[in-house]
Each structure stands twice: as structure tokens, then as C-alpha cells.
Amino acid sequence: MTWHLTENFIFQVKLNNMLFNTARINNLAWSPDSTLVATGSLDTCVIIYEIGKPASSRRTIKGAHLGGVYGLTFIDQDRVVSSGEDGCVRLWSLISE
Q1: Nearest 10 degrees: CA dihedral of 58, 50, 37, 97?
Q2: Which is more confident, 63 or 8?
Q3: Structural domain spans, the chain
Q4: Is the pLDDT of residue 16 over 60?
Q5: DSSP character string of 39-81
Q6: Diameter of the chain measured on Cα atoms
Q7: 22 vs 11: CA distance, rounded Å
Q8: Taking Cα atoms as reference points, which of 50, 61, 57 lies closest to residue 93?
Q9: 38-69 pLDDT, tens per residue?
């Protein structure tokens, strides 16, 4: 279980609900408005979950890196940056085109 504290709210996220990574989760990142949480994993995927919505609404970036994902942060509500075992830093847009 992980906790996230904002100005007046505490969000509780049950990690056992994050069953979509197939390997160890290395990191979590919260969006600026705390409505999204992203996970980076050894399975090379970045998965973005919407807090308060079913896990089926998640967005998955498969093969984000050639090895595990070791760094993850939100630039703003619509973009995530990840770094991986492959030595690359990648910018991902969460807006569907």
C-alpha cells in the first residue's frame, strides 16, 4: 500500500490492485493534480492508473525501454518521462491522437 499526501487529502492506493505489471515495480510517480499514478517496472512497461477509476481504464506503454524502467516522473498532467536500463530517457504523451 502506498500513501500520497496533498494539501488536504491523503490518497491510499492498494498495490495489490496493480496486478498488470509482470515483474517487480521499481517506482511510482503521481501526476501534479494527484489524479493519476504511474508505475515503472522490470517488465519494461509504464502503466498509468486513474485514481478512483477501475484498473481497466489504465494506459499501458509496453516496451517503454529495452530493460527495466528505473525512473519515472510527470512533467505535467499530459506527459510522463521515463528512464530505463537501456540508458535512454523518453518523453511520453498521454493524450490520444
Answers
A1: 60
A2: 63
A3: 2-93
A4: no
A5: EEETTS-EEEEETTS-GGG-EEETTSSSS-EEEEEEEETTEEE
A6: 39
A7: 24
A8: 61
A9: 999 999 999 999 888 877 888 999 999 999 99
